[in-house]
Every structure is written in C-alpha cells, then in structure tokens.
What we know:
Mean pLDDT: 87
Helix content: 55-70%
Shape: globular
Amino acid sequence: MQEPxxxxxxxxxxxxxxxxxxxxxxxxxxxxxxxxxxxxxQGKPLPVLNAMALHDVxxxxxxxxxxxxxxxxxxxRTCWLTSMLTHDKAAMSYEVYIDRMIAASDLxxxxxxxxDNTDNIDPARGAKLRWETDRQ
Length: 136
C-alpha cells in the first residue's frame, strides 16, 4: 500500500481537528499546516511531512491510533515519527518526552519537534494570546 499523499493527510487532519481552537483562537489545524510548511521548505520527505501533519492528532493518546494509521497505509516511518512526537502527558513528563527524542538520535524527529516549538513560540501568535488574555 502506498503512503497517503500530503494533501490526503492534511484533509484527514482538518476533518479530525474540526473547529477546535488553540489558545490564540485560531483553528488548531493551521498549526499543523505551518509546521508542515516549515519542513517542506527544508526538503523533508513525505513520511516526515505526514508525521508532522499528524503530530497533534495521531498517536496512542489521541484520536488516531497508530494501528489505524498503518491500516490507512502510512509507513512505519510515519507512524514511528508520529508516535515519538506524541506526548502522553499522563505517561511521561515533558523532560522524559524530550530525552526520549534526543536518545533516538533521529535528525528528522528533532527537526519536527523544532518546527513544532518554533511555531508555538512565534511572537505573532504570542501577541495575540497576550491580547486575548488581557481582554478577559
């Protein structure tokens, strides 16, 4: 079975996210799109892009299980990256989660996490968050 295209993956992610909003009031789906665009500009291969798209909706503590991802045709690489990017807060601290990534010594995995964190701390998003918080 062939790995689903990035377009198909983003359509799936959009459907799974629905209208859920992040802390800035934007649809959470757009966070995944921005992260994917960052990695796309670095020339990352499809499994990495798909994992980045799925990073907040795929994994054992989320709505899209790894077994289901395999059934949909996602590669072992995509599933592994997605599972490594998934932070099961009930099972491990943030420090253990990051240590696990570092121990994996996988550049694509670290680039995914960096793209995620970079988007999360974008000053434009932070300014909106502060403004929204100040209004309340």
